[in-house]
Write a structure and sequence with these properties.
Elements (H helix, E strand, L loop, with lengths): L2 E4 L2 E2 L5 H10 L3 E3 L1 E2 L10 E3 L18 H13 L4 E5 L1 H14 L2 E6 L2 H4 L1 H4 L1 H13 L2 E4 L2 H9 L7 E3 L18 E6 L8 H12 L5 E6 L5 H10 L6 E5 L3 H9 L3 E3 L15 H8 L3 E5 L4 H4 L7 E3 L4 H12 L2 H18 L2 H13 L3
Parallel strand pairs: 1-3, 1-6, 2-4, 3-5, 6-7, 7-8, 8-9, 10-11, 10-13, 11-12, 13-14, 14-15
Helix pairs in contact: 1-15, 3-6, 8-9, 8-13, 11-14
Length: about 375
């Protein structure tokens, strides 16, 4: 079909959803770095390393060195490219000159901070978005929340397509009754995910004699603070930090859990989740999900219908919700079943990849 995905780094363990989408669409990838090839094997990846030349610093941070641009142009010609699909706004800006010079169609997917935070922090990036919006055939947002943000940045509404990152549907074992209730969160250990406050909420729930345990999957700058919080609250035996795990090791944790919790919140810099893929994966695993009214989460989770929601930054409300969900098995099973049905109908990996394939084939 002539589509080539361009992403600066491929194989990031935090971006399993991107790997899955590329595989489902079966399109070649151009990148500057390919890591974790054993975890993310794909036989259609071309790596073009960035090789800054003597004058690269004068080209601006959103323009590739000339030698790298030339190498990418050769690869695009060799691949017979007619469309570049760039992931993340900065990659879109770097792909823009290539698309213009080669007369290629361009599509860019925005995922979160590239629309929520970076435009306010970097004037050069914000200025560049105008040209990107003008040239791109389509701008893809992973949620309606993010689409609205892009409109506010000047993207024509009619050019935006909302295509979430899809997830798979694992086989679910029967969930047996047991004395302890296991909650799991899969998230970067970053302020936007609110994991330290989630630990506080677990402590508050346990103070009411709720036999609640928590598995934390993820890595990030808040890890040390979270470890200190766990020690201070004497939760070492019931809160487990697993660090980053490959997808085959995350799925068993989800299938063994009773609850999935994602304590998303806007940060002081206005960073907020567009549509957390880990939340969709928890729903796909048939878990009762507890989330916050932040970013794109309420687009997926309807309170009392397929999950439970609390206001962002309300640790007391989150603790109360944990107590309620832990004590009501019928509620957990009902909401978990509805959550999985939501993902199957609207956010499955194959339907969302199919939507992208349609966009690839049909020019705007």
């Amino acid at each position: 079909m002539g589509t080539v995905v361009y992403i600066e780094s491929f194989g990031n363990p935090h971006e399993t959803w991107l790997y899955r989408q590329v595989k489902d669409c079966a399109v070649p990838v151009l990148c500057h770095e390919y890591s974790n090839e054993d975890l993310f094997p794909y036989n259609a990846v071309d790596v073009v390393p960035k090789r800054p030349g003597a004058h690269a610093r004068f080209r601006g941070r959103y323009r590739l060195p000339r030698s790298t641009e030339r190498a990418l142009k050769r690869k695009l010609r060799d691949l017979g490219a007619t469309l570049i699909h760039a992931h993340f706004g900065p990659a879109g800006l770097r792909a823009l000159p290539l698309a213009r010079k080669l007369g290629l169609r361009l599509m860019v997917t925005f995922h979160g901070a590239d629309a929520n935070v970076l435009p306010d922090r970097d004037a050069a990036y914000a200025r560049g978005l105008s040209g990107l919006f003008d040239y791109s055939e389509r701008i893809v947002a992973v949620s309606g929340f993010l689409a609205a943000r892009l409109v506010g940045l000047g993207c024509p509404e009619e050019r935006i397509e909302i295509v979430p990152m899809g997830v798979g549907l694992p086989r679910i074992p029967a969930r047996r009754k047991r004395k302890t209730i296991r909650a799991v969160t899969v998230a970067r250990l970053h302020p936007v995910k609110g994991v330290p406050d989630l630990v506080d909420a677990v402590a508050a729930a346990r103070s009411q004699d709720v036999p609640l345990e928590l598995d934390i999957v993820g890595e990030g700058p808040e890890r040390h603070a979270i470890e200190e919080r766990v020690r201070k609250l004497d939760l070492q035996k019931v809160v487990r930090l697993h660090g980053s795990l490959p997808p085959p090791e995350i799925e068993p944790l989800l299938l063994a859990a009773d609850l999935f919790v994602l304590n998303s919140r806007p940060t002081d810099s206005e960073d907020v989740d567009g549509l957390p893929v880990s939340l969709l994966e928890g729903m796909a695993a048939g878990l009762c999900v507890l989330g916050t009214r932040a970013g794109g989460v309420p687009e997926v989770v309807q309170h009392e219908q397929n999950g439970l929601l609390v206001p962002a930054r309300d640790t007391e409300a989150l603790a109360a919700l944990l107590v309620r969900a832990a004590g009501d098995r019928d509620l957990r099973l009902r909401l978990g079943k509805a959550a999985r049905a939501t993902v199957a109908a609207e956010f499955g990996a194959h339907p969302t990849a199919g939507r992208l394939l349609e966009l690839y084939e049909v020019p705007a």
